[in-house]
Amino acid sequence: MLNWQHIPPGALIGLVLTSLFLLCALLAPLVAPFPMSESVGDVWEPMSAEHWLGTDNLGRDLLSRMIYGARTTIFIAAIATALSFSLGAILGFTAAVVGGLVDTLMSRFADLLMSIPTLIFGLVVLSVLPSNNVTLILVMGILSSTRVYRLSRAVAVDINAMDFVEAAKLRGEGLGWIIFREILPNALAPLVAELGLRFIFSVLFLSALSFLGLGVQPPEADWGGMVKENKDGIVFGIPAALIPAAAIATLSISVNLVADWVLIRTASLKGGRE
Fold it and tell me: What is the DSSP letter of 61?
C-alpha cells in the first residue's frame, strides 16, 4: 500500500500536478466555464472575475480553451506513447531473443528512421497525409518507437544471456513466454524511466507540430496550437500565448518528477526481492 508520508516532496508535487491535469482532461465538459469554440468577449481581454485567464485572439475564454486543450494534448500524447512502447518494446525484445538476420534487419531499419530528424520527418509525412488525430497518433507513435526499440533491445540482450532465460529455452518455452514472462519483468525499471521521457517527448512533439500548423487542427484546442494562435499578442504584452506554454512546461516537469520517483521505487523493490 502506498504510504504518502514516504513520498519525496518533488514526487508529491509531480503527482498532484499530474493528477490535476488528468482531472481537467477527463472532466473538461463539466469544469470548463464556457464552450471550447464560442466567442464570449472581446479580443484579448485581460484577466477578470468572468474570464479568469482572459480571452484569446478570437474572444474565446482562455481558461476553457486550456481545459479542453489539456484533454486533447494528454489524450493524443498518451495514446502515441502507448503505441510507441507496445511496438518498440515487443520488436526490441524479439530482435534480442531471435538474433541473427532478424536482429540485423530490424536494427538497421530503426537506425535509418532515427537518422532522419524527427520533426522534419513528421512534417514531411503529415504534409501528405490527412490531418486528423489518428494520423497524428500513428506518426508520433511510430517515430518514437525507434528510441524505445533501441533501449528495449539493449536491455533484452543482457537479460537474454542470463541463466534463467537459458533454462526457459531448454524447457521448450516459446518466444512469447520468454518475452513477456522472463525478459519484460526484469526490464521494467529502465522502461518506466523511458515511459515518462517518451510521454514528455510526445507532448512537446505534438505542441511543435500544432505550432507549425500540422498538428491538431482548429477549432479543436491544444496547447501548442494556442501558443500559435496568440503569439502576436506577446508584442503588446498580452500573456495569452505564455499561459499554454507554461502549461506544457509544467506538465513535462511534473511527469518527469513522477517517472523519476517510480524508477527509484521500482529499483528499490527489485533490490529488496533479490
Answer: B
Q: Give the Cα separation of 58 and 174 in Å (integer).
A: 59
Cα–Cα dist 15/10, whole Å: 9
User: What 8-state DSSP symbol labels residue 37?
Assistant: S
Give CA–CA dist 183/174, Å, rounded. Answer: 13
Residues 6+ apart with CB under 8 A from 207: 73, 215, 222, 223, 224, 227, 248
Cβ atoms < 10 Å from Cβ of 168: 16
Cell numbers of 131, please? Answer: 490531418
221: left (phi over 0), alpha (psi -120 to 50) or beta: beta
DSSP 161: T
**Radius of gyration of the chain from its Cα atoms, rounded to whole angstroms:** 22
Using CA atoms, how far apart are residues 212 and 128, in angstroms rounded to an integer?
15
Predicted confidence (pLDDT) per residue in 189-234, tens digit: 788 878 888 899 999 999 999 998 888 888 888 999 999 999 988 8
Give the residue from 101, 97, 103 showing the smallest Cα distance to 168.
Answer: 97
Domains detected in the chain: 76-273 (1.10.3720.10)
pTM of the predicted model as reported, rounded to 2 decimal places: 0.88
Average pLDDT over residues 52-77: 92
Q: Which residues contact 3 (CB under 8 A, 6 or more apart)?
A: none
Length of the chain: 274
Q: How far apart are CA 174 and CA 196, in angstroms?
A: 31
Q: Contact at 8 Å (CB) between 151 and 238?
A: no
> 94, 272, 66: which is closest to 177 by C-alpha?
94
Q: CB within 8 A of 50, min separation 6: which ones? A: 41
Contact 206, 216 (CB under 8 A): yes
Q: At residue 36, what are phi and psi to the nearest 5 degrees?
A: -65, -40
127-130, long-range: CB < 8 A, 24+ apart:
127/214
